[in-house]
Design brief:
The complex is a heterodimer of chains A (about 180) and B (about 130). By secondary structure, chain A is mostly helical. Helix content of chain A is about 70%, strand content about 0%. Chain A has two domains: about 5-85, RNA polymerase sigma factor, region 2, helix turn helix motif (Rna Polymerase Sigma Factor, Chain: A); about 100-175, Winged helix-like DNA-binding domain superfamily/Winged helix DNA-binding domain (Arc Repressor Mutant, subunit A, Orthogonal Bundle), CATH 1.10.10.10. The relative contact order of chain A is 0.11. Chain B is elongated and about 115 Å long. Chain B starts with 5 loop residues before the first helix and ends in a 29-residue tail after the last helix. The chains are: A mainly alpha (about 180), B mainly alpha (about 130).
Chain lengths: ~180, ~130
């Protein structure tokens, strides 16, 4: 079945189509959820809730944009809801003096990292840093959008990103990668 | 538009390529939720819709019965408060002259028109009709 058939099947509440959508997108979406939650069990809870919402709200999918992108947004929202429920997003600090150049990280360091290392780097970050870093760097949200999503100021979002990168740089240095000169 | 440094671009490329296989229980849980959603629908009507409708009907019938039952203390109380808040306005149609004309001839200005027990009571000037 192609994507259009799957969407039509899901709209008709066809369980076979729902299963195929799940099989096709759940590995990617579980990895997305896992980047936010830091626990495998929480990530699975997120995708169960997210796919339930996908099948429940499938009629609202306009088919103008990407189906995968639509599912991904639902997964990210569900992950943020879980973090909010656990009060994990409360601690957010704002930097008064920011020098992004001093926190730059060498790109070549990431190229040699394994999947487990990437997850481990993210897991070691505080929830606030990790969430903003994921939303900005991986999902491509703007600071204004992140501020609205997390109910924080734009400056706090920027601060959290810089602190996240600083933390990454420290961790990469521990792994033996030399940071770029600021 | 967001701008990415080389590290961010590389991290993004690597992170978006990650995949993880969910456990079999995850699909079972999802299917169970989907079954529950489907099973509880009867002709597209959900139980909470029926409960909400029943509550609305019950609420409306209680309000109607309270409003129409004059013996109900709640209805009486609201009537009483209304009376207290409304200043007394005498009927405009009442005309003392007409009233007097309708009385039998013998009773107009006749001492016998007033009961004996009220004859010695002096009526305040502001309440006298012909003051």
């Amino acid at each position: 079945m192609n994507e259009q058939d799957l969407i039509t099947g899901c709209k008709a509440n066809d369980r076979r189509a729902q299963r195929e959508v799940y099989d096709r997108y759940s590995p990617l979406m579980l990895a997305v959820a896992r980047r936010y939650t830091a626990r495998d069990a929480d990530a699975e809870d997120v995708i169960v809730a997210a796919f339930y919402k996908v099948f429940e709200k499938i009629d609202t999918f306009t088919e103008m944009g990407s189906f995968e992108g639509w599912i991904r947004r639902i997964v990210v929202n569900e992950a943020l809801m879980l973090l909010r429920k656990k009060h994990a997003l409360r601690q957010a600090s704002e930097l008064s003096e920011v020098n992004p150049a001093s926190y730059s990280v060498p790109a070549e360091a990431v190229q040699r990292l394994a999947e487990a290392d990437i997850m481990s780097l993210l897991d070691q970050m505080p929830v606030g840093y990790r969430t903003v870093f994921n939303l900005y760097v991986v999902e491509g949200y703007k600071h204004r959008e992140i501020a609205e999503l997390l109910d924080i100021s734009i400056n706090t979002s920027k601060s959290q990103l810089i602190l996240a990168k600083k933390r990454l740089r420290e961790q990469l240095e521990k792994l033996g990668y030399r940071a770029a000169d600021g | 538009m967001a701008t990415f440094d080389p590290f961010e671009s590389e991290f993004r490329r690597r992170a978006t390529g990650l995949r993880r296989t969910p456990s079999a229980q995850a699909w079972n849980r999802l299917e169970h939720r989907l079954d529950q959603r489907g099973g509880l629908r009867i002709f597209g009507i959900r139980p909470w819709m029926v409960a909400a409708l029943l509550l609305l009907v019950a609420g409306a019938s209680i309000v109607t019965s309270v409003a129409t039952d004059r013996n109900n203390p709640l209805a009486q109380r609201s009537q009483f408060i209304e009376e207290l808040n409304t200043p007394y306005v005498p009927e405009e149609s009442f005309n003392p002259a007409d009233y007097r004309n309708e009385l039998p001839d013998g009773q107009v200005d006749s001492p016998s028109a007033t009961p004996l027990e009220y004859r010695d009571i002096v009526v305040s000037a502001k309440y006298r009709i012909n003051s």
